[in-house]
């Protein structure tokens, strides 16, 4: 069937009511009296455009950062690389303060004026760690059954770290440790934790 032209469409009627006129639409153009019981889901229009994250000028690779949230809050870490969506790749190093290679939100760090030389760092390993899927958890093959139920109250087994992550950690930290040891007091500075006490004024501190 061919599409209807404007002339083929059902025309509305004009009727006189008293002194005025009223346009009565054709029955096919009138609003429906009955509606579906369930609302039809329509895709939501997203008008916002995703803009690339702009890192702060103070967040330069090699800068010592103070973590403000998470498991390692208060620890001082070294910034290695910027990742998409405002995420930072940092390391302790692990031998110094126990902070492994991990991702951190840029909003929850304080950038200090201390810089560490990244000369000699294994860039291939840093690129590998910064790829998507590196930090995803491995799916457990063994499901909890009756044995897990009867073992309640016992000490849980320690999580085993993948050997690949251990080797990547050592490869990144090796050259960093050599550069840190060249600077006096820097090793002790990274080992110490940051905290605020009564009477401290953070807005007047020099980071």
Question: What does this molecule look like?
Answer:
The chain is α+β, with helices and mostly antiparallel strands and 207 residues long. Helix content is 21%, strand content 19%. It has 5 helices and 7 strands. The strands form 2 sheets. A 5-stranded antiparallel beta sheet has the order 6-5-4-3-7. The protein has a two-stranded antiparallel sheet with strand order 1-2. A hairpin with an 8-residue loop joins strand 3 and strand 4. 14% of the residues are buried. The model has no long low-confidence stretch (mean pLDDT 82).
Outline the secondary-structure elements:
Elements: E1 13-17, E2 20-24, E3 63-67, E4 76-83, E5 87-91, H1 94-97, E6 102-105, E7 109-115, H2 123-130, H3 146-150, H4 163-182, H5 186-191
Antiparallel strand pairs: 1-2, 3-4, 3-7, 4-5, 5-6
Compact description:
The protein has helices at residues 94-97, 123-130, 146-150, 163-182, 186-191, and strands at 13-17, 20-24, 63-67, 76-83, 87-91, 102-105, 109-115.
In what order do the strands lie side by side in the largest sheet? 6-5-4-3-7
Low-confidence segments, ≥5 residues, pLDDT <50?
Answer: none
What's the total count of β strands?
7
Residue fraction in strands:
15-25%
The rounded distance between the terminal residues' Cα atoms is 76 Å
Largest sheet data: 5 strands, antiparallel
**H and E string:** EEEEEHEEHHHH
Per DSSP, the total helix count is 5
Q: What's the gyration radius in Å?
A: 32 Å
Provide the residue-averaged pLDDT: 82
- Helix content range of the residues, please? 10-25%
The class by helix and strand makeup works out as alpha+beta
Principal-axis shape equals elongated
